[in-house]
Amino acid sequence: MKNNFYYFSLLGQLGLIIIINIGVCVGIYKIVEKFTKKNTFLFIVFLILGIASGFYSAYKLLFK
Description:
Elements: H1 2-35, H2 40-62
């Protein structure tokens, strides 16, 4: 039973890490967008960067 709580908390932590990394990159895009014109390509680049950094951080957490 104790192991199940550990795995559920790990799953929640992984989800939060991925969502927060994506949110930070989209937030950076919104700041950059204020100084430049709206650019869909730039949004996709920041979104992919956020997803990649989120999965990398989750990978580091799982295999530390």
